[in-house]
Structure formats: C-alpha cells, structure tokens
Amino acid sequence: YEGNPSLGDPMSITGQLSDSCQRIEKLRTELQRYQAMLDDVDGDGIGGGGAASGGPSTPNASLARHHSNVMSPHHHHNGGASPRSSVTSHR
C-alpha cells in the first residue's frame, strides 16, 4: 500500500487502523469475559461438563465441545433449512 501511490494515501488509513486496533482489544476483552462465564457454568457441574462427571474439565475442552455443537452440520439456526437457502442473489 505504501509502495503503490495509486492505491491512495497511506496516511489516510492511520486513523482507521487505530480504530480497528481499539475494536480488536475491546472484542478480546469481551471474549475473555464470555470465556470466564462459560468456565463458571461448566465448573458448576451443570450439564455434566465437570471432572466429577467424567466430562472435559479444561476450558479448551469445553470450548471445543461448544464449537463442535455450534458447527455441527445438522445444527442450523434457520429452522433446519440449508444455509444456502437464506442467501439472496444480487444482480
């Protein structure tokens, strides 16, 4: 970008980069907060995720379990329809 002036003024994106970095930090903070909340729920033994029930007891294991539930090909938020059915064509 800096080497090709036809792409625009590199100094004009400095503010955008700063804003993006601040937003990323805010999102990281939110992620940590939500991970702590998930750890608290998993640590209570609700849902069989605790070590006493033989389930995964590490935060990464619980996140992996949650991620696999969300990403399951049989789990759709649009009533079971194909994910492509909600995409509209822009012509």
TrEMBL record:
This is Thyroid receptor interacting protein-like protein. Signal peptide: none annotated. It holds the Pfam family HR1_TOCA. Transmembrane segments: none annotated. It comes from Scylla paramamosain. Residues 41-91 are annotated as: Disordered. Residues 1-43 form the TOCA HR1 domain. Residues 64-78 have a biased composition (Basic residues).
